[in-house]
Amino acid sequence: MAMELNISQKQSQVMIMTPQLQYAIKLLQLNQMELTEEIYQEMMENPLLDLTPPGDSAEAAGQTAMPDPGYDQSPETPPEPDQFAEASGSSEENIREEFDWENYFGEYSSSPSTTLGTGSHESPEDQPSFDTFTASRTSLTDHLTWQWGFSAISPEDYKRGQEIIGNIDDDGYLVASLEELAALCGSTVSEIEETLSRIQELDPAGVAARDLSECLILQLRRLDLENGLAAEICRHHLRLLEKKDLPGLCKALQCEKEQATAAIETLRSLDPRPARAYALNDPIYVTPDVFISKIGADYVITLNEDGLPRLKFNKAYRRLLSDRSASDETRKYLKEKLKGAQNLIKSINQRQRTIYRVTESIFKFQEDFLDKGVDYLKPLVLRDVAEELGCHESTISRVTTNKYVGTPRGVFELKYFFDNSISRFQGDSLSSESVKNRIKQIIGGEDPTKPLSDQRIVEILQGSNINIARRTVAKYRELLGFGSSAERRQMF
């Protein structure tokens, strides 16, 4: 059969990832803090954007603010259908100069800005600095160095002590060997060991130990218990203590049960990480992106927009854009930057509306959680929300990743409410989170001297109409941070 070449036309629709759409997707997956950083970065690169000073408003400047951004935060009036997929088309529109974009971000502030009175201070420079009201924190290295300055007996001894202090980790343990320290200081091992023994006498008790046994013995030495049963356990029988083998300890120590129990209680009063009080790691706080509060009988969704920079357009550059005498190159540059600013504002507006709609949809499914707690979480997957909102699952995934919601039940990541199902013998399925909560309650109520095995927990759950396997219970128990029954067992 002969081969022929033909020309034909075919019409099809395809979605093109324009730069504007890519940028809108990027903003969508940012959390509150990341969005704030992105806005500040855009301000540095775009001269048309300025930060509105605290206390400024569109009314104070004699200007007209933009209308509402387009989403309604009241549950009775749902926002208009999501047009996130059409974000790229908005940037192709002509720039409508009849709108005043000044102070547009005033609409994003959920509470009015206030300026604190300065009292008798004439200028901000005269006001006390923030450091005046904060307590300074001393690191372990600084604390030990300060003490060692009074204890060193010679410059060489001081140098050896500094090397030792510099090799103590955040828990207070020495992480370098004596041979390594001797090579660093140009000293003998015996000299390093003598200096180390005096470093170990500094505060906190147990610091500069080389292992757990030495750390506990150093603390017992401060209590004049270095030769007691507790010290004997530290030197030779920590393995039995780890296994919680009280009969084995009594046999190894050749003592009565009461004596071994008293020694174990003494060890419990010691600190296996003596330097924890000097840790400088600050806690990481979660800023919710959206809040749900109960007003009367209804739950109200409120987007958290506190802290978002309030932007305005630079007046000088706006006048220059309207100046017909400006060069074509200048006007072209400013139009590009104005278009970028417009795209930023519209993308943020769309991001806020999408987060609102996704949160609203999630809690249509999970309203029982708000009323009754974790035990009433329902199984939910991304597809359920995507189908209700008429968008792709990837959009729901971006919205819920690394974003948090503040509820009357606490602060949760939005992904927390998407969960696998655990079947019942009869009735509707449960979410895995509610089953984890049941396991946590069961373990919390067990006898510490006779902890429940995984198989026994399975039997209790099955008695509550939950069909679950033992390996699933073991998996959930480990995710909750509980050890096995042998690890949870207490001696007395």
The residue fraction in helices comes out at 40-55%
> How many domains, in number, for the residues?
3
Instruction: Estimate the mean pLDDT confidence.
Output: 79
Overall form: extended
The number of helices is 21
- The secondary structure category is alpha+beta
In quaternary terms, these chains amount to single chain
Order of helices and strands: HHEHHHHHHHHHHEEEHHHHHEEEEHHHH
Let me know the largest β-sheet: 4 strands, mixed
What's the total number of strands? 8
Rg calculated over all Cα atoms: 33 Å
How much of the residues is beta strand, in percent?
A: 5-15%
Pick out the low-confidence regions: 57-127
Main sheet: strand order: 3-2-5-6
For the termini, the CA-CA separation is 91 Å
Q: Could you characterize what this model shows?
A:
The chain is an alpha+beta fold. It has three domains: 19-110 and 288-389, no CATH class; 140-278, no CATH class; 420-492, Homeodomain-like (Arc Repressor Mutant, subunit A), CATH 1.10.10.60. Helices cover 45% and strands 6% of the residues. The protein is built from 21 helices and eight strands. It has helices spanning 19-28, 32-45, 87-90, 140-151, 155-166, 178-185, 189-199, 212-222, 229-236, 238-242, 246-253, 257-268, 315-322, 328-365, 367-372, 382-389, 393-400, 432-444, 454-463, 470-479, 485-488, and strands spanning 49-51, 290-295, 298-303, 311-313, 404-407, 410-413, 421-422, 430-431. It has a four-stranded mixed sheet with strand order 3-2-5-6, with helices on one face. A two-stranded antiparallel ribbon has the order 1-4. A hairpin with a 2-residue loop joins strand 5 (404-407) and strand 6 (410-413). The chain is extended. Mean pLDDT is 79; it is low at 57-127.
